[in-house]
């Protein structure tokens, strides 16, 4: 058996086409162009792919985009001042602070993210948006997990009643993924580094989400035949070699459907970022009119 390949570019194109239509209607109705600002502190080679893809997508869709490169030794105060400016900048509807931050301000991460206007929080990391997601009031939702959900929906894969297992409990992927799947009536289990008998749990999964950050972590013996396997991992194992968390070659002969890396959910992350930027612009317009 060979799994159906869930190609990110097909789903991403559908999400972006919808966002593009909305950009055009905002321009016609309100003479407003949605704008996205990305703050990058220091040089991070991994960030470059993401920023380049994001920039290209903005151009494709007619979204105004600003990349703010700040020096590696930027202080917390400098970052807060930059965010404050963007919070009040009416050309900017979405703000994203690229993570991870450099070590000297790493502990300030929560304070920095909390300073972003929740209505401009296109990453969905602000506690207000996290709380809304957790209480069934989805507002601006983290891009990667939302991309996974949109992909399942567009592929016609039912979520309700399914056993979903997530490996990884990060604030960026694992936890929001839990809420999104639960809200869509899956039975959800979250596994992590202290989970016992991991394979026994993952083998129960109809939908398996891998967000661990370790290459080839999910092996064929951990997967139920016919399961949908979503690989959220982005592991650079050589300068030009990117792999996910799933042993793709082995797992594809057990799974029913599988996402590749690259070319999988990473592309959906960008597409949802575009969608969130348009949504944020709409939100802000509805508050000023
Ligand atoms: N505040 C914040 N929000 C983020 O959403 C965020 C972040 N910080 N920090 C870094 C990670 C990483 N990330 C990626 C998204 C898409 C691709 C992507 O487009 N991947 C393509 C291309 C990969 C390639 O060709 O190298 C693919 O998987 O096919 C990569 C990486 C967002 N992140």
UniProtKB/TrEMBL annotation:
This is Bifunctional protein FolD. CDD domains: NAD_bind_m-THF_DH_Cyclohyd. Catalyzes the oxidation of 5,10-methylenetetrahydrofolate to 5,10-methenyltetrahydrofolate and then the hydrolysis of 5,10-methenyltetrahydrofolate to 10-formyltetrahydrofolate. The keyword Nucleotide-binding does not apply. GO terms for biological process: L-histidine biosynthetic process; methionine biosynthetic process; purine nucleotide biosynthetic process; tetrahydrofolate interconversion. Pathway: One-carbon metabolism; tetrahydrofolate interconversion. Its EC number is 1.5.1.5, 3.5.4.9. It catalyses: (6R)-5,10-methenyltetrahydrofolate + H2O = (6R)-10-formyltetrahydrofolate + H(+); (6R)-5,10-methylene-5,6,7,8-tetrahydrofolate + NADP(+) = (6R)-5,10-methenyltetrahydrofolate + NADPH. Keywords: Amino-acid biosynthesis, Histidine biosynthesis, Hydrolase, Methionine biosynthesis, Multifunctional enzyme, NADP, One-carbon metabolism, Oxidoreductase, Purine biosynthesis. Gene3D superfamilies: Leucine Dehydrogenase, chain A, domain 1 (3.40.50.10860), NAD(P)-binding Rossmann-like Domain (3.40.50.720). One of its GO terms (cellular component) is cytosol. NADP(+) binds at residues 168-170, 234. Residues 6-123 form the Tetrahydrofolate dehydrogenase/cyclohydrolase catalytic domain. PANTHER family: C-1-TETRAHYDROFOLATE SYNTHASE, CYTOPLASMIC (PTHR48099:SF5), C-1-TETRAHYDROFOLATE SYNTHASE, CYTOPLASMIC-RELATED (PTHR48099). Residues 142-283 form the Tetrahydrofolate dehydrogenase/cyclohydrolase NAD(P)-binding domain. It holds the Pfam family THF_DHG_CYH. Belongs to the tetrahydrofolate dehydrogenase/cyclohydrolase family. The keyword Glycoprotein does not apply. HAMAP family: THF_DHG_CYH (MF_01576). Homodimer. One of its GO terms (molecular function) is methylenetetrahydrofolate dehydrogenase (NADP+) activity. It comes from Propionispira arboris.
């Amino acid at each position: 058996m060979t799994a159906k390949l869930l190609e990110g570019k097909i789903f991403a194109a559908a999400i972006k086409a919808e966002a593009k239509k909305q950009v055009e209607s905002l321009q016609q109705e309100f003479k407003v162009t949605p704008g996205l600002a990305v703050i990058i502190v220091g040089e991070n080679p991994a960030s470059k792919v993401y920023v380049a893809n994001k920039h290209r997508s903005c151009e494709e869709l007619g979204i105004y985009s600003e990349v703010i490169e700040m020096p590696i030794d930027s202080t917390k105060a400098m970052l807060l001042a930059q965010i404050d400016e963007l919070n009040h900048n009416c050309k900017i509807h979405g703000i994203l602070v690229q993570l991870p931050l450099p070590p000297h301000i790493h502990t300030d991460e929560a304070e920095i993210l909390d300073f972003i206007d929740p209505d401009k929080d296109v990453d969905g990391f602000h506690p207000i948006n996290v709380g809304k997601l957790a209480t069934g009031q989805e507002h601006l939702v983290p891009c990667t997990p939302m991309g996974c959900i949109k992909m399942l929906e567009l592929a016609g894969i039912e979520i309700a009643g399914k056993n979903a297992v997530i490996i990884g409990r990060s604030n960026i992927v694992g936890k929001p993924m839990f809420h999104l799947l639960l809200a869509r009536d899956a039975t959800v289990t979250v596994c992590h580094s202290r989970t016992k008998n991991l394979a026994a749990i993952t083998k129960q999964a109809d939908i398996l989400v891998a967000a661990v950050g370790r290459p080839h972590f999910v092996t064929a013996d951990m997967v139920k035949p016919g399961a949908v396997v979503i690989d959220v991992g982005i592991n650079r194992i050589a300068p030009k070699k990117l792999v996910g968390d799933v042993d793709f070659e082995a797992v594809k002969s057990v799974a029913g459907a599988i996402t590749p890396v690259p070319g999988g959910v990473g592309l959906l992350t960008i597409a949802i970022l575009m969608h969130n930027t348009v949504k944020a612009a709409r939100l802000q317009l509805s508050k000023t009119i």
